[in-house]
Amino acid sequence: WIGPTPASIRAMALKVEAKALAERAGVPLLTSGTDRFPVLVKASAGGGGKGMRRVDDPADLEEAVAAAKREAASAFGDDTVFIERYLEHARHVEVQVFGDTHGNVVHLFERECSIQRRHQKVVEESPSPGVTPELREQMTAAAVSLAREIGYVGAGTVEFMVAGDEFFFLEMNTRLQVEHPVTEAVTGLDLVEWQIRVAQGDLLPVSQDEIVRNGHAIEVRLYAEDPANGYLPNTGTLAAFELADPHVRVDTGFVAGDTVTANYDPMLAKVIAHAVTREAAAGQLAGALRRAAVAGVITNKDSLAAILSEPDFLAGATATDYLDLHTDVLDPPLDRVRHALAVLRALDRPSPVAPAGWRNVPAVPEWLSLLVGGRPVTLRWTRSREGLLVETVEGDPLLGEATPVGVVRLDNGVEIDGVFTPAEVGDATVTVDGLTLSYDVLPRFDDSAGHADAGGPTTPVPGTITQVRVEAGDTVTAGQILVVLEAMKMEHTITADADGEVTAVHVRVGQSVDAHQVVVTVD
Q: Using CA atoms, how far apart are residues 269 and 292, in angstroms rounded to an integer?
C-alpha cells in the first residue's frame, strides 16, 4: 500500500479484508508477484478506471504512482493506491452477490466486462462467453464465501481476472454497479428493489435455488468521447438525443438540449439488449445504436456498433486487450458520403436565396464542407443534364486531391450511378439506409487563423489546470510533461512536441481552459 489507510472508509476496509480472506482461502491474488512488470497502480477507494496506471518499465513507476494518487484524490477524496500484477490477454469476470441482515448470501451469476478502455468497462454481458460451467461454479462459490465471511449486506460485486483455467481475486466493489441491468435482464429480478428491501431489514426475496438465468444480455456504455482520438472526452450541447428503440432498454439522464460539460464522467447512457441468444442480443443492440440519433458531441456510438458486429466479438474471443488488438472498431469505415449528399439535398432546394455552394458561373465547381459523424467530408460538384458530377476532396475544397463519386441525383433520397437510397435529414442528424449520423455544416471561410495565438502545445479538451511544470526560460525535450489538465475526472498530460526553450507560459494552476488553448510556447 502506498499512502495512508483511513480505517473510516468502510468500502476500502472491505476490499482489504476480502483480499486477506481470499489469501487464506487459497485464491491466487494479483497483488503477489508485483516484482514482475507490467504492473497496475490502482486507487483503493474507487473504480471506473480512475486513479489507474499501467506501468511497463520500473523507471516509470514513481511518476505513475504520483499521477494515480492525484487522480484518486480528485475523484474519491482518498489518494491511497496499491500495486498489483497486470495480466495481459485475460478476461475480467465479476460475480454479483447479495446479502441480507439475516446472514443469507446469494449470487446472481457472473458478468463479463473484458472490453475496456482506460481500464474502464465499455461492454458488459451475461453469461460470460469464456467461462466454463466448472469455472463458473468455483468463482460463484468463492464470491459467496467471501461475502458471507465479512458479513456483507446489500448488493456487491466480487471481481476476478481469468487467465485460462485460473482465476485471480481482484477486488470487491461494495455497491450496485453500472452494469447491474445486465443481471436484471437475465434473471428477471429488480436489484434496486432488493436494495430497499434489505435496507429495511427484510429477508432476501428468493433463495439461491430459485435464481435462474434466461437468455443473454449485453450492455454498452455510450460516451461523449472520440475513440479514434485516444478516447478524448467531448463537450457541447446535445442537438439531438433520441435512443428510443423497442428492442433495448436505455438508462440515461440526458435529453436533447442538455449540455455535456467537462465536470463529470462523459457517460451519456447505458443501452441494454436481452435476447434468447448472444448473437441475437448483439444484433439488436448494434441495430439500435445505428438507428440512434445523437448529435452535438462526438460519441462512441459507431464504435460500439462496430464492436457488436466484429467477428472475434461474436465468437466470444474477448479479453482486456480487445480494443488494442482491434483498432479498426475505434473508427469504423462508414459511407459518410451518402449522408453528406443527403444533407446537400436538404440544403440545395429551390429558395429565394442562393443554395449551398452556389456559383453563377457553371464551369466553376460548387462545394460544401461538413462534419458527418464527427469526421470532415468535403463535396465538390458540377451540374450536368444527367445530374451532379460529384467528387470528394481532401484538404482545400477547390485545389485538394479529389476522388470521383459518380453521377448523383438528389430527389427524395440519394441516387449514385443509378443506385437509389432513401434518406431522412433532420436539424442535426441524417439517416441513410438505417444508419443515423450527426452532421454540422462547416463555415465556408474560416478567419480564425488571423486571430490565432502563438503556436505551441494545446489543451485537448476543456478542463482545469492542475500542474504547470515549466516556466519561461526552461529547456525542454520532446515528450516532456509541461502541463497537467483534469477533465471529466480524468488526468491529461500535455507534453512538448519537440526539443526547445520555453518562451512563455500561458496558464496557471486552477485556471479553467477551453479545448485547443495554447498552454506553453516553445521555441
A: 12
